[in-house]
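Milestone M4 deliverable, item 7.
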Amino acid sequence: MSTRERILDAAEEILRTRGVAVATTKEIALAAKVSEPTLYKYFDDKERLLLAVLKERLPGPARLTVRPGVGDVEDNLTELAHAALTFYQQSIPMLGALLADPKRMAAHRVAMNRHGGGPDKAIAIFANYLQAEQTIDRISPDADPNAIASLLIGACFHTAFLRYYSEGPDATTAPRASAEALVQAVVRPLLPLTAPRGQ
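Output delivered:
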């Protein structure tokens, strides 16, 4: 296993159990059995390391290949929503403590913007997919991709938060049926398809 992979393994475990606000690069380096300077050779700062964990280790919409014009629009949105549910459920314990510390939150926001990360990226994935479907007439030209994406992502986050809140950090991953229900409840009324399902 490469040094980078060992660092990511250690970071994923520590960030998941201790959260980004408390975890230090020193303890991550120690768990990975590397020096802290070695860790910084691979990752500029803790936010860059966090971003790598979020992108490479947690299942999320950015890791899916959902192509416009292929498959059913609702099924594709369900796949994206299921990935978002899983991602939020696993990332909430990593990021939750930041909300209670305005200074760290501000520094985190600046660093994530510098690295091209942030919560708005998930909305963009959904909105870009919907816009692409709109250009090939698979959804109504009257649909608002950004509004639909925001509503669905908000529902995914809320559902994941409630699952984490009620079951704790060891909660099982939300089933695909949860994502399907969200798409049907939130998106279907706002998303008149211009082609029959399955086309």
